[in-house]
Task: inverse folding
């Protein structure tokens, strides 16, 4: 089975080095919510977000208002390694991921040696993002943090017209309703965001990146690419 060019930058680079892996990957549909249990038990596979957006937090639960990172189309996720590192993932925007056996990638040998360095750089960028966003939640106003989170989501999204389901984001950021509403009102008053009602409920739409950049703190500037 072959696949068209992936929207995941790390997967694109992997196929450039080892195109034969395209016949051994599978598309996985992801619904919103905690990382599916059936996939969490699937050890030894790498998952590349295509058009879904995931959030990362500590397995024990992060402090209120602190969720550590966003993981999107410039990253790869390993449930097996995540369990050992104490991280868990939650699908914030449903979509698809590409699944490849890690053993097959390693079996490609010298062909994928440079890719593993790129994968390590991507993981290092995620760690930097985690540190930055923990600092953000502790030191910046909610409106600034929300604007930075939305800009970060845009950086990780394969689509320029980013739309995010409101309810999962409200829960994931773990703010009180009052704090959330105040932050949202600030962004909406500057015409930076809008609320759109679709069949599946309210969806946040980014109306323009310039107002968000003006309102945000610099925490979204952690490079999303490796």
Result:
């Amino acid at each position: 089975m072959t696949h068209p060019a992936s929207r995941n930058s790390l997967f694109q680079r992997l196929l450039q080095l080892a195109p034969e892996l395209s016949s051994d990957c599978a598309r996985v549909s992801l619904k919103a919510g905690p990382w599916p249990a059936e996939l969490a038990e699937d050890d030894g596979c790498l998952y590349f977000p295509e058009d879904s957006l995931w959030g990362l937090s500590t397995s024990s639960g992060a402090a209120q208002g602190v969720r550590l990172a966003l993981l999107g189309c410039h990253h790869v996720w390993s449930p097996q390694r995540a369990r050992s590192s104490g991280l868990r993932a939650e699908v914030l925007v449903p979509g698809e991921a590409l699944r490849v056996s890690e053993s097959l990638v390693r079996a490609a040998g010298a062909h994928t040696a440079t890719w593993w360095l790129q994968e390590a750089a991507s993981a290092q960028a995620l760690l930097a993002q985690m540190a930055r966003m923990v600092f953000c939640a502790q030191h910046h106003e909610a409106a600034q943090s929300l604007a930075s989170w939305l800009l970060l989501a845009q950086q990780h999204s394969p689509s320029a017209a980013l739309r995010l389901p409101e309810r999962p984001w409200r829960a994931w950021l773990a703010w009180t309703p009052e704090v959330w509403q105040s932050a949202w009102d600030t962004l909406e008053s500057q015409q930076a965001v809008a609320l759109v009602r679709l069949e599946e409920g309210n969806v946040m739409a980014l109306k323009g990146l310039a107002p968000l950049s003006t309102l945000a703190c610099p925490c979204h500037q952690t490079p999303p690419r490796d």
About this structure: The mean pLDDT is 83. Residues 113-139 form the longest helix (27 residues). The first strand starts at residue 26 and ends at 30.
